[in-house]
Amino acid sequence: MIFLRPIKETDLEAFIALNKLSSIGMTSLPKDARLLEKKLYLSLDSFKKNVTNPENEFYLFALEDSQEHTIIGNSAIFATTGGGESLYFFQKETLHSPSTLDDVTKSLSLLTPISYIRGPSEICSLFLHPEKRKHGLGKLLSLARFHFIAAFPERFTNSVFTELRGVIENDKCLFWDGVGRHFFNVSFSKVIDLLKYGKSFITHFLPKYPIYTTFLPKEVQDVIGKTHSKTRAALVMLLQEGFEMTDEIDIFDGGPKLRALKNNIRTIYESKVFQIAAIQDDIEQNNFLLSNEKINFRACIGSMVIKDETSAIITSETSESLQVGLGDSIRSSPIHEGEGK
After folding, report:
1. Which of 105, 137, 219, 328 could covalently link to 324 via disulfide, CB atoms 3.0 to 4.6 Å apart?
2. Against a cut of 0.85, is the pTM above it?
3. Is residue 228 flagged as an active site residue?
4. What is the pLDDT of residues 186-207, one digit of tens each?
């Protein structure tokens, strides 16, 4: 069975190897082995902390194939964002210019540079092995994080955001070449590589004034707020989960930023907690997103039969994957077929 769990110290080598397969633009998990190791240990410390209010915790999850004993994916949550470094975005705005002259352009689109110190919780770092992108594993990797948030709401802010990769083809980014490179004349791959050392260098090139998008080439205008081709399924899934597009975009690749109130996320508000009344394998085969309610979190897609409003029956395979037994609590959410991947 395939299940999601917190990353472990013994996963380090496999974790580094897996993320070497990711394409350019995944800035929250750089390919630098030393920095990946730092992320892993930050996650280990975060799961151990006794948290009453979210701070700088980072929760990193590994998707494990129990038959092959391999890690095939990872995803994460930042409890808060910003911390010691500012967050930088372009904000899409419209400038209205009232005029009695017919030929005067009445509204113009702008990209206004903005920054702020502290942001809400962020879901990030989702990567699934290219050969495993089937059978709904992307859903498990993404949506299971919301069960963890539902189980431990005190560890997260009231709203959650995510950034999706912008349009990047063959390591080239139209948005960066059309906007950012005029202020910082390095390649897209170079500027992304610099991010692994922090964001302080951004203040040296971030424009001081709004940019009129009308002055940008048409092909650059067309990718503002658009997603990478491999990220479109994730965009659809998040919109169906209750996330909404914001007016902010990434300053490097122009990708969209989405945001949702924690309690408005579908997987959270549709989830229900049941007590395990029985464990048996001759039950109806159906698919639910299931997880335990422990800090030693486990989640999987498995079969469950609801016995009454407070209790349910699960299979022995699910029991083993979630590390739960009779009398323990599990959280369940329906799987919406045909949405995302």
Report:
1. 328
2. yes
3. yes
4. 999 999 989 888 888 999 999 9
